[in-house]
Each structure stands twice: as structure tokens, then as C-alpha cells.
């Protein structure tokens, strides 16, 4: 029988405890690295995906997602592993975790490793232990597969450099969206301890002398719903992080109640819908040319729970529609509900050789049940019914919830003087 299959209860218990303790970290993406197989080494990091999800080439892949230890000197009130929480504590030795990773890899349980840790003694000592694990994997075991590691806030430049040369991706979790929230709930952390490592990682990635340093870039995570920070504040912070540190991803994690600090929300369901809307808005920031200030502002700081962010924007800017699909620029097409990145590119290619109509758009992947109120083909709408804004909004809201239309009277009038709220459902069920 294999080594892992007969592992001692002590090691099995460590895996149970430290694997479970890592479940609150959602920033475990493993895409972006293109390191192929190397003779004499084991594995590769080409087209990896996300834990228990799908990679770009359609494969379902998995990572061993685990903490080196759940001992921690910090007492962050939102964290399950905080020092004041009365939980079972344990730690892997670097040798144990490296051996366990390779045993799981050889049995085809996993394709890579996501390694994080509580803070023992100080940030540099913790990262030294993490580096020992990864050095064993890369050196002694010749492991060439995907590794994502969490850099520890407050870590030194030297330790960040060592960790980056052993990993494919690094992340530093910002956790809370404002310095005020950090002071309240994570007093041992501050903005500089988090942002400084991000800057060091960015410089390491850019430095040509450090070729191979975290080739898949860096990411971070924010906890959503543990503090009063608004969606507007969160999106502005994400936008700033993308711009200043060239992050690959910001992950949003709905707060799961794990403490009873008076500043934390009372126990309840995690705000999963809010998390979903933030991911949709983040997609618009990264791929659709939107800014945080376009999507929300001080007067409207929250994303709508019913309508997706792109629909919200379109409904506030009806004066920009309709869009003529045979002439509109690519950037303009991206702002039409029901038209996504792929369908916008297809439109731009197809209209070079033919004048497009609504049936063409359907074949190109446009979600017409949303787009039809915001576009014309050859100067004409698809229908001559003027449907009032309330009617469209109700139909979109109903489609989000039950996928069925609400019967309501429509006005037999001239073509719309303004586009309608048909946009609302598009981000949820189809292309943005």
C-alpha cells in the first residue's frame, strides 16, 4: 500500500485540521503559468486551473489547498485561525508537507499546491518555513508543477524574493477594504505591511534579472460583509490595486461568521449575492473598459441585488442608446447589454463583409433578449413596440428569478425614444 494510504493518524489529523483551516481563502487561482515539462523533473504548470474548477483548456483540475500551520500570533477578529479562538492547533513540518504533496500528486489526486500559513514568531520566520517546503519540492523531489503561495504581510524583501523564485503565483491578502476596518478588526496589521509586499512582488515580476519570479503574477482577497465598507469603496480599491500593482485578480470572499466581536455582523448567511455582483463589476473593470466611478458613486454606493452592474449602468445612461451595430466602435459595443467580449469581436469581423441583421447577431452569440432594446441593425429596431421602462424592468427581474416573463401591457407607439431596462438580466445568464 502507498505511503499516504497508510499514513499515521497524526499526519491524517494534521491534514484534516490544516486543510479545513484553509477553506476560508478563496484566492487559490492557479492559472497563468506556462512552464512546460522538463526532463528529469515531475509535472508541469501549463494551463492549470482553479481548485476543483475548470482550466482554460476545459480540464477539471485541483490543488492541495492547505496551511503549513494554524498557529498564529495575530488576533484578526474575522479570522477562524485568530490567536484568541479556542481551536485545535497543529503544524506540518516542511518535510511532511513536501512528502504529502508529492504522494498526492503521484496518485493523481492533485495537480499543484496552494500554500498559506498562520504567522509563527514573525512574518520572515513563517516564510522561511514555507520556502523550506517549496525548496524540497523543487529541489529534492524535482517537482515542476504549479505552486501558489501566500506571502505574509510584513515580510522582508529578501524573503519575498526567495518565495517568488519558488512559486508560480504569489498573493498577499488585503482582507479588509479600508484602513479604518483594519485598525478595528486586525490591529496587528496595517496598510503598509500589506502594500509593501505587493510592491516588492510587482518589482520582482518586472525585474529581468529575476526571470522565473512568480510568472503567473500576484492576486489578493477581500472579505465582503464583515465591515460597513460599501461596494463603491471596494471597487475603487480594486481598481487602484489593478493599476498600481498590476494584479491578475482580486478575489471577493463573502464573510462567514467565525467570531463574536461587537464590530462584526451578527451570525447569518454569507452575502453570496453581493459577492457575485462584485465579481461581475470586477469583470467590467478588467475587460470592458469601465471605471469604478462609472458603475457606482457616493450617492449610489451599493450594487443592485436584482440587476447586474452593466445593466445598472445602461439604465442610468439611456441617452447613449440605441447603438447601431454595423457602425459602432468595439468599445461602444462592449457597453451594450447582451454583447460580450467574444460577440463584440465577432461583430467587428463579420460586418466587414456583410451588413448584419438581428438573426446574424443571434448566430454571433449576442443575447438578443437583452440587447434588442439597446441596438439597431441597418437603422431599425427589431420591433415597433414601445415598451415602457417599468415593463422591461419587471420582465428582466422576473427572468433573473424564475426565467419567465411577466404579462404586462405594452404601448403600440413609435420606436423607443429611450432604451429600456432589458439589460438587467444579461450579466447573470449570458454574456455581459
Q: Bin the strand percentage.
A: 5-15%
Strand order of the largest sheet: 5-6-7-8-9-10
Report, as a whole number of angstroms, the end-to-end distance.
Answer: 51 Å
- What class do helices, strands and sheet pairing give? alpha/beta
CATH level-4 homologous superfamily of the largest domain: Aldolase class I
Number of helices: 16
Shape: globular
Contiguous uncertain segments of 5+ residues: 1-7, 46-58, 403-430
CATH level-3 fold name of the largest domain:
TIM Barrel
- Return the CATH architecture of the largest domain: Alpha-Beta Barrel
The CATH class of the largest domain turns out to be Alpha Beta
**What is the domain tally?**
2
Query: What gyration radius follows from the Cα positions, in whole Å?
Result: 25 Å
Count of individual beta strands: 12
Please provide the ordered H/E string of secondary-structure elements.
Answer: HEEEEEHEHEHEHHEHEHHHEHHHHEHH
- The average pLDDT score comes to 83
**Helix fraction?**
25-40%
The main sheet comes to: 6 strands, parallel
Describe this structure in words.
The N terminus and C terminus are likely disordered. It is built from 16 helices and twelve strands. It is 38% helix and 10% strand. The chain has two domains: 262 residues, Aldolase class I (TIM Barrel); 121 residues, no CATH class. It is α/β, with parallel strands linked by helices and 432 residues long. It has a six-stranded parallel β-sheet with strand order 5-6-7-8-9-10. Strands 1-2 form a two-stranded antiparallel sheet. A two-stranded antiparallel sheet has the order 3-4.
